[in-house]
Amino acid sequence: MHQRDYYTVLNIEKSASASEIKNAYRELALKYHPDRNRDNPDSLEKMKEINEAYAVLSNPSRRKEYDSLKTQLGAGAHDRFRQSYSDQDIFKGSDINHIIEEMAKAFGLRGFDDLFKDVYGKNYHSFEFNKKGVYAKGFFFSSGFPGNKNRQGLPEFKPSGVSGKIVRYLLNKMTGGKLPEKGNDRHDSIRIEKEMAKKGGPYAYYLKEKSKKLVITVPPGIREGQKIRLSGMGEDGKNEGAPGDLYLKVQFDKPAMKWLKDVTGHLFKK
Asked: Going from the N-terminus, what domains does the chain have, and what CATH number goes with each?
């Protein structure tokens, strides 16, 4: 299995600042832009790698999650990360399109839309909607969510407000079907002892909404307030969309709480 490290891809240190990440991406994107590498077919794959690395590391929450996986899994962090994030998820909210457009104007290269069509092929789609005073423009990937084998091969889409509903209507028209919609995430908390937080280990959790008993692996060194993410344990999706995720916030047992648990457990044993 191919192992990839986002920091290595961008040739930066793990401590790199946001501006250093952006500068590194600009430099590499200019170097490997297909317009400057017409005789090098490998440039397309290289652009994919640096695009993905930038989109992840330039987003504080995604970067934090990736860093946590690196601490736990080392070289296996990338593959585990991609099990939970599709291309659609990774590029959501990214400013990568603005950076590419700036380079296109400055150096006479193709812009974002043409570049992404070249790099991602039929997996990439763009749209523009301008009707009755409502304007919407964007892009999406048709590969769907990892592990979600919907029959139509459509991207998952989660509408937000009036503009989200308009875009959903437009995309349904474009694709001739109903877009899969990812389910909502669930949020809960668990209480563990500091010793378990330090060493890590299994933790029994009952998910009442699904009537399931789960065994959660608490990673060693986890801090109070951090969240453990369980992929696919949220609410069910719509139109064959993937289920949401379950986020468990870690809280430490207080001495009084531990005493109560011990007493309760002792009484039940009797």
From this structure: 6-175 (1.10.287.110), 186-269 (2.60.260.20)
